[in-house]
Amino acid sequence: MPEAAARGIRRRKHEPAQIDAQTSLLVALGVVGILITIALAMHALIRHFNDGQPQAENPPAWSQIRSAFPEPRLEPVPATEISTLNAEKRRLLNGYRWIDKEQGIIQIPIERAMQLLAERNSGSAR
């Protein structure tokens, strides 16, 4: 560093206040060029994929498009329906039923299944 000071070269300790106009212009031109290239490529792709496709004379009105789809089916009383669903799930969890009668597979209540597992595991731990 001392020899740089001897030659009269000053080292900057901060960024310059002005910007480099030439670099900024080149970057801006590059961005514009890329955007133009993308637009031309998209135009060429659209023309390529639309070749041979029949063009609609008059596109349908929004009301015609909307009437083609059914209205959503909403639950009239959601609280009642969710309580019915929960009751059915509780009945399945807490009841006995055949899963596969031929193979002898039966569903038992979850509480009873936990008791059986606890008894089985406590017997093998001894």
Write the layout of secondary structure elements.
Blueprint (H helix, E strand, L loop, with lengths): L1 H6 L13 H30 L11 H6 L10 H16 L3 E4 L4 E3 L2 H15 L2
Antiparallel strand pairs: 1-2
Give the gist of this structure.
The protein has 5 helices and 2 strands; from the N terminus they run H-H-H-H-E-E-H. By secondary structure, the protein is mainly alpha-helical.
Overview of this structure, please?
The protein is flat. 58% of the residues lie in helices and 6% in strands. It has helices spanning 2-7, 21-50, 62-67, 78-93, 110-124; strands at 97-100, 105-107.
* Shape verdict: flat
Strand order, largest beta sheet: 1-2
Number of helices: 5
Low-pLDDT sequence parts: none
Radius of gyration: 39 Å
N-to-C CA distance? 83 Å
Q: Strand-and-helix sequence, N→C?
A: HHHHEEH
The structure class reads: mainly alpha
Keywords:
126 residues, mainly alpha, 2 strands, 58% helix, flat
